[in-house]
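Notes from hallway chat w/ T.B., transcribed later so I don't forget. T.B. wanted the structure written out for a chain they're using in a teaching module, and asked if we could keep both sequence and C-alpha cells in one place. Agreed to drop them here.
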Amino acid sequence: MNVAGVDAHTTYLVVVIVDRQGHRVEGPKRIRLNEEARLLELLDRMAPVELVVETSPSWPWLYDLVKDREGVGFVLAHATKLRAIAEANYKRDEIDAELLARMRLAGLIPEVYTKSSTQRQHAVLVRHRQVLRRNRTAAVNRIHAQLHAVGLRLERGRLLTKQGRRWVGEHAWPKWGAEQRHLAGTHFELIDQFTTLMQGLDRRVRKVSAEIPATGILQSIPGVGPYRSLVLATEILPVERFPTPAHLVSYAGLAPRSRSSGLAPIRFGRIPAGANRWLRNALVQAVVTHHTHAPDSWLSTYYDVLKERRGWQVARVATARKLARAIHAMLRTGELWRGETTDEGVSSSYRVSHRRPVLTD
C-alpha cells in the first residue's frame, strides 16, 4: 500500500507518494483542480494507494472524486491537530505533502470523519440559517446601541415584534438625530429581509428534518424542534462512530480540560476551544429551551440544583453533557425521551443524582 500526501489549495494540489518503507516513489507533482484525469491516472498507476489530506475547503471535492475508485483509499486529517506541520521551520507544499504521507505510515494522523454528500448538504442548510440569524442579531444590536446612546433601553427580543417597533417610534425617534434615524430605518429593513429569508429556510428545514428518522427521536426531547434536531443529526450521525457517551461528549467539546503530573491530583479546567462548535452550541441552547418547555424534567432539575451551587454558566455546560449522554443512548437504542422523575431516580440511560450533581463525566 502506497500513501499519497496531498497538500490542497484553492486552485491546485501538490501530491507526494511514498511506499510502505517510507521511500518517495512519485512526486512532488502539482496538479490543478481542473486536471481530474491527470490525478486519477496517477492514483490508478500507484494503486493500491491511500490519500491523506488535511481538512480544507477542497477536501469534499477530492473525497467525492475518489471514494468509489477501486484501490484508492481516503484519510481526512484534522488540520489543527497536525502540530508537526503547523510548527515546521520550513514550510513548502512538497514538504507538507510528504510529511502527511510519512505521518500516516507512522500512525500519527488524527483522523476526521468524512461526512457523506447528503450530510454535507444538510450542514450547509443549518449553518446558512445560523449565519442569517447571526447577521440579524448584529442588526438588532446596532439599533440597541443607538437606544443606549440616548438613555433608552428595550428588553431583548422586543425589537423583532410590532409592539417593540411602535415603542421605538414613540420613544426613541424623537430623541434621535437624523443619522441615527437613518441607521435605524436601514437596519429595520435588513431585519425584515433576514426574517423573510429565515422563514423560507425554516420551511426547508422542516421538510428535510421530516425525512430523517433520527430527528423524530431527537424531537421527542422537549425544546428540540426541527432545526435543532437537524443540527444534532447532521453533526452526530452515524452514532456508531462514538463507542461510548464520553466520546460524544469529548467530540462536542463539553468535557473540561484535565492536567496531571506525577502524583499530583488531576486538575480540571475550562472546556476546550477547538471542538465542534456547531454541536456544542446546539446542545447548550437545547438545555435552555428544554428548561422552558419541561421545567420539571430530571434534566431541568439537575440544571436548577447545579445553577444554585455553581452559577448558570457551569450549570449549562454540565447539563449539556448530561443531555449529550442521553442523546447517545436514544440514538443507539431508538428510544424516545423519558423525562419523568421517580423516587428511585430515572432509567439507567438518563440517571441523575438529585443529592449532589457531579461535574465530571
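Follow-up for T.B.: The two ends are 40 Å apart (CA to CA). Might be a good example for the class.
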